[in-house]
Amino acid sequence: MKRTIHFIILLTIGMMTYILLGASCLPKNTLTAEGYFIGKFIQTTVDHQFAKTLIEKPNDKLVHSFFNKYDAYELNTETLSQISKEYSNDVATFYFAQRLYNNSNNKFCQDLYYQSINQSEEELYNGLKDYHIVFIPGLGYKEDTTTGANFARQRRILDKFNLSNELIEIEEWGLSEKNAQIIASKLKSINKKHKNIMLVSASKGGLETAIALGDILEPEEISSIKSWVSVGGILRGSPIADSYLKAPKCWIAEFMLWTKGKNIDIVKDISYNMRTSEFEKLKLPSHIKIIHYVGTPLATNISKEIKNRYCSMKDFGPNDGLTPIADEITKQGFVVTELGLDHYYRDDLIDKKTLALAYVAVKLERKTFEE
Fold first, then answer.
1. What's the CA gap between 54 and 93, in Å, rounded?
2. For labelling, which of 92, 158, 269, 300 has a CA lying 20 to 30 Å from the CA of 366?
3. Is the pTM of this model over 0.85?
């Protein structure tokens, strides 16, 4: 009994520490900004005067000097973290999105994505009619259907238009390597039945898809897979996982998982330290066109749902509430960013936006891209 009481006290202390320190990074003062940014008019609040300048005065000498300064830097979490510490998270977020958009290939994808959202459903679905779309769900997709990680709504729409699709039923709380084996086995079978296959993954399903494609399967076994749309892929794990492997947060994690009949292995499975190094060993097939859909929330508009986690990763710079935004992309992938959305992608138009991304993937196969 004493041990139980002691554990509850420690757990309470840990939770209070997490809550009190978690949201300390959010800006107390905000500025309004409006202007055209990466092909679209935006009106928002920002956390720094220079973030406002980036939106409202993109041709300012200071802006050009800023981009020239970081032009030689690799577009990764280290660079965004440096910018965030020098300026702010919003400045780093705008830099990330703008630098991606400055690449003509990404610009094509981003612009086409915006256009596709405004197209009729019939136009989008006609563009997908020759494809078999395979969905790979995210963590806990059966237990909590409100996250949309099961792609149920998108699949219902596809069914309505008689478009070929299926969901690979991985273990919703399974470890990544085991789920990757399930995905690989299923994809080999699907590859024999369909000529044009598109994969669409969510969150942790992106990590598992990457392992299947880049470590388990041979290119000839998946020759019919033309593209892969990774929605909020935690390809390199999450720093939050590492923080929950240390006291006092490990007590919280163990207790919460215990109440669900699970253990700490699921947290270890998405360790940022482990997955970052492991991901670099993967060799993704060159014939598959990859589109990364990255939610990029602004520091002034962080939801209550993610604010503690967002701030717990402040040393990594801008993040989506689960992983640093720069860790969701690969060098060979095309990137579409969504300003204002976090890892949960809560948006009234998310169903159509998901299909718009699929439409962009189809169009990629008909275009010759610049190196």
1. 11
2. 158
3. yes
